[in-house]
Please model this.
Amino acid sequence: MHEMSICQSLMDQVEQIAAEQGASRVDSIVLSIGPLAGVEADLLSRAFEVARMDTVAENAELEIKTGPIIVECRKCGTRGEARVNRLLCPSCGDWQVNLVEGDELLLLRLEVSGIDTKTGVEE
Ligand SMILES: [Zn+2]
Model:
């Protein structure tokens, strides 16, 4: 399953950040998945249920946000929102557009606790 390997690398990232902050627990993870990322949010959260076992994120909540698709037209320079099946310039309708946003898979936010106060960074 494609989502499982994505989840594994995500967990590596999460564990690394938690370790850097000296946190013993991760409370929540917020992800942003673009509509063109090729990732099913449902499958990803199911993979997460498995991947988080025996990690600092064992009891973490996973929140998945989906962002818009933003394109920039190579002809008229307009930057705007496009749809998954219609990657066209929102202004002149040309298909020669650059994808600005929409295929990302980002770790937006991580909430941790159990931080060692001597080295911990509080918001
Ligand atoms: Zn255009």
